[in-house]
Design a protein that fits this description.
24% strand, seven-stranded mixed sheet, alpha/beta
Amino acid sequence: MKSSSSRPISIGLIGLDTSHVVHFAKLLNDPGQPFHVPGGAVTAAFPGGSPDFELSHTRVDGYTAQLRDEFGVQILDSPEAVAEACDAIMLESVDGRVHLQQFRAVAPFRKPVFIDKPLTVRADEAQEIAAIAEANGITVMSSSALRYAEGLQAALAHQEQGEIIGADTYGPMALQETQPGYFWYGIHSIEMLYALLGPGCAEVTVKSNEDHDIITALWKDGRLGTVRGNRKGNNKFGAVLHRSKGSEFIDVYANPKPYYASLLERIIGMFQTGIPDVSMAETVEIIRFIEAANASRANGAAVRV
């Protein structure tokens, strides 16, 4: 889908149970924001919400009111109504369990869709989204904003340090009962690992206890990557990228530009060109990686991705 350069793309939000919707509306709809992202504006939304997930249903009313009152977003009564009213869709429901159902609802409109992380919480559902998108010619992208932190992108550009031979990422690893294992917060550090190493993981092995998790991942070409997660106070993300000529610490907070803005630039680019910055094949692999890591966390064995 391509929009006339004289008119911003009208964007519909589905699922108003995450702070992401407010961050995105501010960056898109308010030209006075320091890191305003031009090219699109949030115009309509469907609240959604999962009654069995406290971090979903307790936040819907507040974010819905904020979008309506501060940004003039029209609140509609179904995902289908949003899809019909807008040029493009951002599926923002914080509960990954509902993403397939919501995507099925909007797929007949054949509008480009960004699905906030996680794409789904099951590999078979991820593959179904990919199949529906391909069958209907729908451009779909899913990603954590951490992938686009300026510090991480800068490290990837430092090719004078030689080929990438490995990476270690870390971050908070809170768990939620309704979002299996690493699908809740682990996905952020896992997305960072994939941004650094690319697709092609062969197997994963997990060691964990009450406070910490370490995922060791073997790539098909022999490279190793690790993801360290903690539940012991430190809520910062970061990484170390290893190249053949040296290693580089990645501070994802060093640049004043928020990673939400950097992600939105890729999303708007995808809406304008029909080309996603992260392929569905890579995203489906990430969901398989998380399923495999969850299985290894449960049984302690190496699990094929």
